[in-house]
Amino acid sequence: MKGNTVFFTNTPAVISSAAVGGKMEGDGPMCQCFDKINEDPFFSCETFEQGESKLLKEAVLHALSKASLNPEGIDVMLGGDLLNQCVGTTYGIRELDIPFLGIYGACSTVTEGLMLASLFVDGGYADRALAVTSSHFCAAERQYRFPLNYGGQRTPTSQYTATAAGALVVSAERLPPYVRAATVGKVVDMGVKDAANMGAAMAPAAYTSIRQLLQDTGLTPEFFDAIVTGDLGKVGSRLLCELFERDGVDIRSLHRDCGTMLYSFEEQDVHAGASGAGCAASMLCGYFVPKLRSGEFKNILFAATGALLSPTVNAQGESIPAISHAVWLSFESGSAMDIKFKKM
Fold this sequence. Notes:
344 residues, alpha/beta, Peroxisomal Thiolase, Chain A, domain 1, 2 domains, six-stranded mixed beta sheet, 35% helix, 21% strand, globular
């Protein structure tokens, strides 16, 4: 480990990934990236929370099927969501009989899970590990804001929680993309208190982790085909680029944000973009991993972002701390440093 960054030496690889979404995701420009779209927000269940559990389980089962695996083929699963006690995940996977570690990083959970799954595989503690996360618009609205029938107005800086899930299977098998390095994020709090402006709260955390990974690896932004953030939306994406500009670094041509990719700003009422743990997870699993596997992208830096707030502490006047974990994913095999020097 150098700085805050783990360098993987035994080439853990993402051998399978799957994304499942809801109606809004199916109506958006990235609809072809999903393995399954569900028109019913209840997912044929009685409650939105039960629906999210089914959504997450579907993502897991699709990822297993695409790798020709049964649940017995997974040594450990790491997962979490936005609901209290991560019930979306635990209720979703309780029948699969897979050793499970619950994790929470808000909307950064997918990179936390991918990083930990890669550590299990790279260290020889698991042959295959699975990372999964989800979010559900209706369940999240009920927990974090207001009941849906309240009909409250949303501010221009607010973001629309994705009804989506993503699952990845990590293995030592030789199949791109490979996980080369991962930076463990720090909790960053710049004093933002507006829960309807999470992009502003999360942008400094993304900046901190991306800059740390670049510093620890010695790589420049131009090494990567894309520098991807989780769900900063319009506001946070602009702030991230401005933070790097203070360092004399222009990442605008490389930066992609899942929160600005998932929906159409012209045709869907999403204000500043998408958010939710399922936003980054579904875009990583359904869009970026396939492009890395095909070789269209050679290297990407993926930094999902999470706002670590709760309605209780926010109502008490607390600010919103945030976190971002960054992962370097590559089409190329070989050690991380071999790739660096080959590219240079």
